[in-house]
Specification:
The structure is a single chain. The chain is an alpha/beta fold and about 350 residues long. It has three domains: about 25-165, 3-Layer(aba) Sandwich (Rossmann fold), CATH 3.40.50; about 175-260, 2-Layer Sandwich (Beta-Lactamase), CATH 3.30.450; about 260-335, Arc Repressor Mutant, subunit A. The protein has 13 helices and ten strands. The strands form two sheets. A five-stranded parallel beta sheet has the order 2-1-3-4-5, with helices on both faces. Strands 7-6-10-9-8 form a five-stranded antiparallel beta sheet. α2 links the parallel β1 (about 40-45) and β2. α3 packs parallel to α4 (about 95-105) and α11 crosses α12 (about 300-315).
Length: about 350
């Protein structure tokens, strides 16, 4: 007896096939978007069973999960991926969790990441050590995934809001840094992306270094002295640093703002019939800079600055810096103090 062969399904038309593919792509993008919204979690634990339990629970909850089994790889993954939160085992062979946390908090690129410790040690001494190392919370072993997820959500939301606030400052042209003074030593705790660009440009430092001029300015504030905004110049632009006070962690919060002087220099050219370079020199004379200072700003020698200034005197009919500055402020409203 021969059974009839099953009728093969009719092939999809080109249009139907394209539609199905598009719907599949849409579902995939939606799942990826859900995971991106849920967040990226780095789990650090030297026990594979603990990693497996947490990985499966977080994956099922929609999180993207990275794992590390020891301290060095944890630091590398955190620096590369910048996770939204770190779940960190306190007791591991080699570099323990407390040291991993301290190193994460010492790096400006990872200092903002919240750390939740996982520990079987519930003595007050160990709990305090976790917080001293930079942890925002801790959970005790054996791990209960629903509790971990609930605690994570709270800390990730707070960190996300802080990051959004820093990004908003960047978007409006105001970069921000937090600096910690430890026994007089200045250390960048965190910085926005814009600050990371501006500090090396204006101060000639490495991206993670607190400029010496800025550190001295903050030390003056720490000693209780009244400090005015700190400004440093590069050609026709200035970086103005304004102290905003202290954070809850007792770090110094500084807002950076870039100011362009091009419009003022242009107005000086038009009002006094000077060349561009003569106007730039006169602009900095009004700001009280010496010929050497002006040379550093404009990339010229003090002798060249002096020659430009002599031509300014001749065109304005004056003989001194004070007279030139006074006439410039009288004729160019933009040069007058605010």
């Amino acid at each position: 007896m021969h059974l009839p062969r099953p009728t093969p399904p009719e092939p999809l038309s080109a249009g139907a096939s394209a539609g199905a593919s598009a719907r599949a792509d849409l579902r995939l993008h939606e799942r990826l978007a859900d995971r991106a919204h849920a967040g990226l979690v780095l789990i650090v634990d030297d026990v594979p069973d603990n990693l497996a339990v947490l990985h499966d629970a977080l994956d099922a909850a929609g999180y993207t999960v990275l794992v590390a089994t020891e301290g060095t790889s944890a630091l590398q993954r955190a620096a590369q991926a910048e996770p939204d939160i770190v779940l960190l085992d306190a007791v591991m062979p080699g570099m323990d969790g407390f040291e991993v946390a301290r190193r994460l908090k010492a790096g400006p690129e990872t200092a903002h990441i919240p750390i939740v410790f996982m520990t079987g040690l519930t003595d007050t001494e160990h709990v305090l050590a976790a917080f001293d190392a930079g942890g925002v919370d801790y959970v005790t072993k054996p791990i209960r995934p629903p509790e971990v997820i609930a605690r994570m959500a709270v800390h990730m939301q707070s960190a996300r809001q802080a990051r959004q606030a820093r990004n908003a400052l960047d978007a409006y042209g105001h970069a921000t840094i937090a600096v910690r003074l430890d026994d007089g030593r200045a250390r960048l705790v965190w910085q926005t992306q814009l600050a990371r660009q501006w500090l090396p440009t204006y101060f000639g430092t490495t991206p993670d270094e607190v400029p010496a001029l800025l550190a001295d300015w903050l030390r003056s504030a720490a000693y209780g002295r009244e400090v005015r905004p700190l400004a440093t110049a590069r050609e026709a632009r200035r970086l103005v640093c304004t102290l905003q006070g202290r954070t809850v962690d007792d770090d110094w919060l500084v807002v950076l703002r870039e100011v362009s002087d091009a419009a003022t220099v242009e107005a000086t050219m038009q009002a006094l019939r000077l060349t561009l370079r003569e106007s730039e020199v006169l602009y900095w004379v009004v700001k009280g800079k010496t010929n050497r200072d002006i040379g550093d700003i404009l990339g010229s020698s003090p002798a060249t600055v002096k020659k430009h200034l002599e031509r300014v005197y001749e065109k304005l009919g004056v003989e001194t810096r004070t007279a030139a500055a006074g006439m410039a402020m009288q004729r160019v409203p933009e040069l007058r103090p605010a």
